[in-house]
């Protein structure tokens, strides 16, 4: 509450005294600073959470690292700023952070009225519901009159309201400001179900005392394309963020990994040569080093490696790729050609 | 400098300079903020208030559905804030008066106990108490499917207390009107009766007439058949109890937290107020043969009230503002509803301006009321 309010005050104050950071080109600011400032979530295992050595781990954190690697040549040159769900956009608008990589759903109204632009979707998610197995519920449609715990996210409570309106049922919405209280209320049985993005629910289930007592309902009640966001009217910076993400996807498609990237620089494939800076000068066109693509893959690996490391079946979250597979394998990941 | 040496001129001059500086600073901030918002392509203005809210609110004291406007949703939050603050102030004051008197008791056990009560409540941040009460409720009581049945129709669980409720089919407004009319009439008659009694020294039937005036209009409305009620008892649904009146744990935890916190402050204020009345007053009353309890009620407390009211105003303002901690435990107060709306529309500046304006306005109203009351009980010097 307090940190949120401070952040809000800072954002408001920055707006009032005329923030200049927002107006100059973000790329120059980042290069001059020598660090990328990236907004991530407070504590969401799998997406952004510090490990026992204090290093930020997670899918969103690795997206930040890939951008830092593209711009500064080193994926570790990132300062992570923990952003609250309510103040994340203000932090971006006011120039406090360079990029927001925080499980944020790209929507029409956010893109048009908040003064921000979204990059490519990094994770195709959808809102789901998690219930205790003992409840004996097989479908979200059976949850009429149930109490459902959520965080005060925009789309979350609205989607639930829309869903229950569409099936003509009622429900009790219990909204918590902090993820910890939200989870505790759900585990204690204050709510029959907890609702959030499916990726987030996997994380909630993973930290329960006994994850097998909980079951994710089959319905996906909304589309939640999670994407990084940047300030509007800085298209060079937006290009850099977009192509850092596309680089991860293209690398998976081309079979380039963190381990074999050095070998791949000798590849005869012209597209791989362009990606890794062996041919043409794509880096210059973005205002970056020509080895930017190499640096991205060298620091975090390709999309599959980032996914498996943080969310995949070997992790506590145990998520399957689902729609987040390459287009040629029936998924939705489709990086435009690098040429 | 002839003018600057003139004290009358200087007094006015400094005021003008100070006010202009404040206005100028405000104007500059407003201009920069609007210009920056426009530059960053962030939507501005209050037009969003009439858009459809699209969110569900679990605790509503006035009719509300997700198809209502955002302005209505904010109003629902405001009513929730006022409801919990008012009840906390009311019960907290009653508890506080007793604790404060208990602090001065000659019985060492009682006075020490009350001292411990006050210190324990005053010296821990309210937010921690809110978490404590809330988690006590949701962890100690069973889930709603295993709700404890206290009496037939009364269920206690970690989803709160469900009790049978009377629902007004019609005639609610009429009854309320009759009750208000009766109360005003009763107060007037009682006032007249008391004045006559003081003037003549004889008992009169004023209070009987007042009582009749309080009850008769309501009875008349009911007898006319304009009122119809229906009975609604909680019933076990598939997941939770439906029907009846549901008192939710978020509301109870917030009410208890605010109420106990306030009662500790009130206790200290009352104790200080009583101690401020000189010993001579006690001795004089006891010399006249009044027992201790009546001395306290008729002689000491009315005088103590003059010392009590000003700090009490502060305490009420605090409880009103502290109700915004509701957000931590999921009670949909003004701030929580505003936050959700802020999140939906992205119009942070406007939404914050609205709820800050509301808090400021209502705090000033509370102060005005308490100042009026203070002036009424203050010592009249003639």
Structure commentary:
The complex is a heterodimer of chains A (339) and B (382). Chain A contains 14 helices and 14 strands. With 339 residues, chain A is of the alpha/beta class. Chain A folds into two domains: 227 residues, D-Maltodextrin-Binding Protein, domain 2; 96 residues, 3-Layer(aba) Sandwich (D-Maltodextrin-Binding Protein, domain 2), CATH 3.40.190. In chain A, strands 10-9-11-8-12 form a five-stranded mixed sheet, sandwiched between helices. In chain A, helix 3 crosses helix 9 and helix 3 runs antiparallel to helix 13. About 2% of the residues of chain A have low confidence. Chain B is α+β, with helices and mostly antiparallel strands. Chain B has three domains: 36 residues; 225 residues, MetI-like (MetI-like fold), CATH 1.10.3720; 66 residues. In chain B, helix 2 crosses helix 7, helix 7 crosses helix 9 and helix 9 runs antiparallel to helix 11. At the A-B interface, helix 1, helix 4, helix 5, helix 6 and strand 10 of A face helix 1, helix 4, helix 10 and helix 11 of B.
List the helices and strands and how they pair.
The complex is a heterodimer of chains A (339) and B (382).
Chain A: H1 2-17, H2 26-33, E1 36-40, E2 49-50, E3 56-57, H3 59-72, E4 78-82, H4 88-93, E5 99-100, H5 108-113, E6 116-118, E7 123-125, E8 127-132, E9 147-150, H6 154-166, E10 172-175, H7 179-187, E11 193-197, H8 198-206, E12 214-216, E13 224-226, E14 229-231, H9 235-254, H10 261-264, H11 270-276, H12 282-286, H13 292-300, H14 303-310
Parallel strand pairs in A: 1-4, 1-5, 9-10, 9-11
Antiparallel strand pairs in A: 2-3, 6-14, 7-13, 8-11, 8-12
Helix pairs in contact in A: 3-9, 3-13
Chain B: H1 7-39, H2 70-103, H3 108-122, H4 126-140, E1 148-151, E2 154-157, E3 160-163, E4 165-170, H5 172-200, H6 206-223, E5 228-232, E6 235-236, E7 241-242, E8 245-247, H7 249-276, H8 279-287, H9 292-322, H10 334-345, H11 348-377
Antiparallel strand pairs in B: 1-2, 2-3, 3-8, 4-5, 6-7
Helix pairs in contact in B: 2-3, 2-7, 2-10, 3-7, 4-7, 5-6, 7-9, 8-9, 9-11, 10-11
